[in-house]
# Entry
Amino acid sequence: MTKKKGVAVEISVTRDVFRLAEVFTISRGSRTEARVLTVQVSDGVHRGRGECVPYARYGETLESVEAQIAGLPADVTREALQGLLPPGAARNAVDCALWDLEAKRAGCRVWDLAGLPEPGPEVTAFTLSLAAPEAMEAAARRNAHRPLLKIKLGTPDDMPRLEAVRAGAPDAGIIVDANEGWSAEVYADLAPHLVRLGVALVEQPLPAGEDDALLGLERPVPVCADESCHDRASLPRLRGKYDVVNIKLDKTGGLTEALALREAARAEGFGTMVGCMVGSSLAMAPAVLVAQGADVVDLDGPLLLAEDRDHALKFDAAGVHPPEAALWG
# Structure
């Protein structure tokens, strides 16, 4: 049991699995399903929910994240939570669940509680899985109507894949995610070709621990920090290396820090991208608030699933829409 403002609150954690519409591959491996943790916070009358995706790249497992949540003290509040758990999946799910509970108790929406304008739809990227060039070209043709495609790269054979995607979707915007698979020399060699092919952004080209090599490097295509950026404490290390930061709730540890990181990053002159792990609409719902006015939005997780939550987010030509209260917030 935990207590918030004198009201007993029960926190429960369940494991959920969502089948993907097709195999999803990045340079680190492939998957056929999304395994997530769902946190529910209930006071016996109202219920709040949050979702997180433990990520092995950051040393997280379903078991370790469950243990972090189970270890929270009996008097945890959303404000106290920020200092009790580090940035990461566990804090994200609990933080978002508490926001949801607060809104339902108050009979309003989360953006009202947070003092934010009512959100609207935001155009989102759609991710093409890493595959052979001919397969990626076919995928690009199927999705050529989408305004922005994101390509997973980070291999020795990236250029044939990129050329194939551009051939399949000649009019779409393109961003690429190297998933830490390049070096500074590879970026410099590829940059003229990226410009020629109309690539608007390169996400995390270098390993996070080796990105000092970006200092002083000419960046004709803007570079975005993903694995190198977790929360506001990351920002001093990013100056001079990156042009944009990718805000993901599973990295920041929830909506509370994500909103603070967005404002701090903008104040320091960084562009903002709002991204996601592969999860359900419940995971994306809070991120839609953070995505308002972002330079790049990448909240396509539900579009990659074969199944989703009830009251799933709406995606249409206008983009991803804010959630219904029945889903979150």
Remarks:
- Residues 269 and 317 are 30 Å apart (CA to CA).
- The chain has a mean pLDDT of 93.
- The chain is about 30% helix and 25% strand.
- The longest strand covers residues 7-26.
